[in-house]
Amino acid sequence: MKVTTKGQVTIPIEIRRKIGLLPETEVDFSVSGRKVILRKAPNRRNRGSKVVSDMRGRATTKMSTDQIMALTRGE
What we know:
Blueprint: H1 13-19, E1 27-32, E2 35-40, H2 47-55, H3 65-73
Antiparallel strand pairs: 1-2
């Protein structure tokens, strides 16, 4: 595995799955002697609440819940 010119490496899927690294997951690096340690950062904000907060205030259509449900069901 090589480091790119931008300092990036690809973390193998087995490792990402084992420690739960999803897209946008925050990580921490530390150095111990000649080793670099990568850790999943403490949950500062879980992924679901980030998505909700990013979407908050973006709706522009004034529809009722019933109207939205009818739309999604194709009624």
